[in-house]
Amino acid sequence: MSWENDMSVLAWWIIPLLGGVLAAIWVTWSSRTRATGDRDSLQDYERFRAAMERQPDRPEGRPEPGEA
Question: In this structure, how many other beta carbons lie within 10 angstroms of the beta carbon of residue 14?
Fold first, then answer.
């Protein structure tokens, strides 16, 4: 076997090996533990509900809808 043949075999092995390494890096990165932020989102939801339940402040002299 000549060295050109050895290099072509090496090149064909490098492609799947690099793919495997990149796949392992991606799996490690994508499966990391992340903060879900549930506490903040629940507080935001409660604040939204409270805002929706409040009556809007009307300026003086402006009638309520349906009181014309």
Answer: 10
CB 64 within 8 A of CB 58: yes
Tens digit of pLDDT at every position of the chain (68 positions)? 576 777 888 888 999 999 999 999 999 999 988 776 677 788 889 999 998 988 777 666 666 676 65
User: Hey, what are 62's tokens?
Assistant: 């402006």
- Cα gap 64→54, rounded to integer Å: 15
| Residue 28 vs residues 16, 18, 23, 34, 42: alpha-carbon distances, Å | 18, 15, 9, 13, 29
The encoded tokens of residue 23 equal 């796949």
